Amino acid sequence: MSFRTIGKIGFLFVIIGFLMPIACDQNGFEIAKYMMENEEIFSGILLYILFISAIIGCIIGILLAQKKDVSTSSQWAVIIICIMSGLIVYFNHLEDLDLQSGAHMILTGWIISLISQFFPDSNSNKHYSSNKKCRQCGNVYSGSSSSCPKCNFSLYEETNQSVGNTWTCKKCNEVNQITASSCKSCGEYN
Description:
Blueprint: H1 3-6, H2 9-19, H3 28-37, H4 41-65, H5 72-92, H6 101-117, E1 132-133, E2 140-141, E3 161-163, E4 166-168, E5 175-177
Antiparallel strand pairs: 1-2, 3-4, 4-5
Helix pairs in contact: 2-4, 2-6, 3-4, 4-5, 5-6
């Protein structure tokens, strides 16, 4: 499991912090409701967005733990939305707020999620050729996914052995040049 996946626990801190007293002995929902009732609708909506984006961040963490592909850009988007929605509310009401433990918990969650995002994925240094043929269902696909998009069969089990400038086909044991995307003898994809 990558550090980036583990870092999604930071979103759990954000959710817990939102449910704790953030300011004025009120949790995030109570503050958002108060703002909405006092014609600060934008700030109230931003607090709800903070909470929802933290939930989405936790879901992304679960998907990553299950080895599902989640784009790095969507991970960044969730982190940025979560942090910016909270900071906008904070800076718009800086003089009104006396921050409490929930706010500190949210800040801790943001820091954990943000720092972990700078670490590379554990799958980023695995290289697959552009074309693969699933040994389970026969589907031909391309990309760097960790499993077949059709039947979800793991790619790690079907990688041909490569040594130096050659790779050996698992199907027929033919030695091929590393630049070849398929076996010269049987046509099996590398």
